[in-house]
Amino acid sequence: MIEITYDELKALPEGSYELIDIRDEGLTAYGMIPGAIHIFVDELENSAKLADIPLEKKLVFYCEIGRRSREIDDTLPCFEGRKCYSLTEGYVGFVRSRIRNEGDREEKKKRAEESIRKKFHKQLFTPFAKACKEYKLIEEGDRIAVCISGGKDSMLMAKLFQEIQRHRLIRFELTFLVMDPGYNKENRALIESNAEAIGIPITIFESTIFDTVDVIEKSPCYLCARMRRGYLYSKAKELGCNKIALGHHYDDVIETILMGMLHGGQIQTMMPKLHSTNFEGMELIRPLYFVRENDICAWRDYNELHFLQCACHFTDTCTTCHEDGTTSSKRLETKKLIAELKKSNPFVEANIFKSMENVNLNTVIEYKKDGVRHHFLDEY
User: Fold this and answer.
1) Residue 296 domain boundaries
2) What's the whole-model pTM score?
3) Is 307 contained in some domain?
């Protein structure tokens, strides 16, 4: 497969090529290159979309980092008579190119902040502030480590923390913490550039997590996620913080509830806050608890921001990027299930969420608290 850079692609005559995103839907949800169509790599040979593209058009395939698109067999019958290319560095290369060539960063920062105060105030700041108040996530004298992975959720969370601190209703301090578990220099630079562009003064520390999990064959990302949390707790405590904030949102919560039932045989949820069991005096908080993912995406797209889902070297092939042990395919499957149920019941999402607030122990056969199981017959 011939390789082509994003800058070379832009130099081609308009309409002379078709840009094809071959990533799975879990990755495309984090953003696509403008003008691209989506055909999953495993469906290329029998794709009606591909058959409808005129033969004279060049086909430019891209994945996340350029690995899978480079390995496409362009001698297959479906590519006969066509010129095929692989986009060097894939979607990551596109994002890097956009950041290198973007204009006034001060203007970009101002636009991102004003959009939170005005256009997206009701969708983003209001539910953020509501979660903080309802669950007492921010308290007087707190020193909060806002943990930034470099994705859309954690970047927005950082901006919302800056905004609520600006109101000065409660005195608290913020540290915007980024852990580098072994990123390549380009991906680390991308996180730094995005943070600088929207005005987040990040503190970066390094670990060797990627080297540790690189030799793990089964669920390396599950182990990576668990280790990351431990490192974040440790560094936050070292910096004098008493809380770490993670960017899980409303959709993460309801998907986790449903996946626990369907795939784990249990009823549980992501808690809005919890005490650390291994780091005394530390708490974990989730201030995006009431914020919808679609609204986060709308804010991202309105401000023409481009983030990565994951900056590790497993990205193109990994399917276990969730610390609860569920694969990204299972999460996507659950997301689609909820969307399908919503067609006939518009309240299904709210009902899943509220189910964790309306547990009647008199109708539960057995439950567990603090590691101790309780059966209904114990008090029957």
Assistant:
1) 103-332
2) 0.84
3) yes
> Residue 80, Cα to own-chain centre: how many angstroms?
37
Average predicted confidence (pLDDT) for the chain: 88
Bridge partner residues of 375 (DSSP): 366
- HSE at residue 184, side-chain half, CA atoms within 13 A, is 11
Taking the alpha carbons at both ends of the chain, their separation in whole angstroms is 69
Sheet holding 173-180, edge to edge: 202-206, 173-180, 143-147, 243-245, 283-285, 273-275
Residue with tokens 């919560």: 253
Which residue matches tokens 């949102």? Answer: 249
From 69, 99, 129, give the residue that closes a domain.
99
CB 94 within 8 A of CB 269: no
Tens digit of pLDDT for each residue in 160-219?
Answer: 999 999 998 899 999 999 998 887 777 788 888 889 889 999 999 988 777 676 666 666
Longest dimension (CA), the chain: 77
Partners of 215 in beta bridges? none
User: Which residue in this structure is represented by tokens 């995103």?
Assistant: 21
Whichever domain contains 126, its CATH number is 3.40.50.620
- Return the beta strands (E) in the chain as ranges: 2-4, 17-21, 37-38, 58-62, 84-87, 143-147, 173-180, 202-206, 243-245, 273-275, 283-285, 366-369, 372-375
